[in-house]
Task: structure prediction
Amino acid sequence: MMQSSLLESWRRRWWRADPAALAVYAGLKPMTVVTGASEGIGYALACRFAAAGSDLILVARRPQLLNEAAERIRAHYKVEAVPVPADVTQPEAIAAIETALAAHRAYADVLVNSAGMGLAGEFLSHPPEAVLRLLDLNVRALTELMRHFLPGMRVRGRGGVLNLASLGGYAPGPYQAVYYASKAYVMSLSEAVAAETAGEGVRISALAPGPVNTGFHRKMGSERAFYRYLVVPASAEGVAAAGYRGFAFGWRVIVPGILNPFMALAMRVMPHRIVIPIIGWLLKPRGAQGNDARGQVNG
Ligand SMILES: NC(=O)c1ccc[n+]([C@@H]2O[C@H](COP(=O)([O-])OP(=O)(O)OC[C@H]3O[C@@H](n4cnc5c(N)ncnc54)[C@H](OP(=O)(O)O)[C@@H]3O)[C@@H](O)[C@H]2O)c1
Result:
């Protein structure tokens, strides 16, 4: 307890209360907003926050899956879990989240940006609209949500943003070129804004797991790439536990697992002319599955 309050004081060393700005939040309660919360890592993270007693706003597109996820969380953790079916790439998504927060007399204390998609195959094999859809989701929507909710967090000097990056953000990834580039952006943005807001009470973390056992790889059509056979995927629950813990401590980059931090270091320090062909060999779609994701909505 003593330790956590010392950490909290250090985290807020430059924060000064602005009574007029704080008055806006008087009588409101904190909630955690999780995008991509209906399944996979987002769902597992929502469960971790719920286990710690956070009330939740859960965002994803498919209402049935989302409602079922919310139902399970409410029943198991006895917290509020409010489903907001929305596509975060659409302009009305933020308004829908704000409406749900207002209806519960709440503010977004923590934002977890987990909604994301991948694209497997050669860059030129993807239709332009699939590439733009990925950028819209992994880059634009994530940035817009962070830009929208961070000012309030800064005023309150609490909470923060947990962005889903990837080990893939550490180096270029042939055959998942746009996806890897999008995650490099997430890493860069998160670390830079974390530096800008240091000492103001908010935490900005990038969670960068290696392959995780979710439907993500099947959706993007990479199931038969070598990395799917050679790299043992982590569980979404394990990644969420590491992500939650790292975020609680205010780590700027969280790389879960024992080997992954070494992989991240190697990807950073080894010359690209060595690293990139290895990654390309691991990611290259084998067989016919590579382009399955071309026209799909979900990634
Ligand atoms: N799985 C991995 O190996 C891995 C590794 C490193 C990083 N990551 C990153 O971790 C994050 C989560 O991955 P995951 O494995 O949990 O993926 P997942 O199992 O495919 O889940 C994706 C979630 O995002 C939601 N979603 C997708 N598009 C959306 C949109 N436009 N608007 C709102 N919600 C949307 C999905 O629900 P709907 O389809 O109903 O919208 C679902 O809840 C992603 O950012 C991914 O890049 C994953």
Q: What stands out?
A: The pocket of NAP is lined by residues 35-42, 59-62, 65, 87-89, 114-117, 137, 164, 166, 209, 211-212, 214-216, 219, 298 (CB under 6 Å). The longest strand covers residues 106-113. The longest helix spans residues 128-156. The beta strands are 29-35, 56-60, 81-85, 106-113, 160-164, 203-207, 253-254.
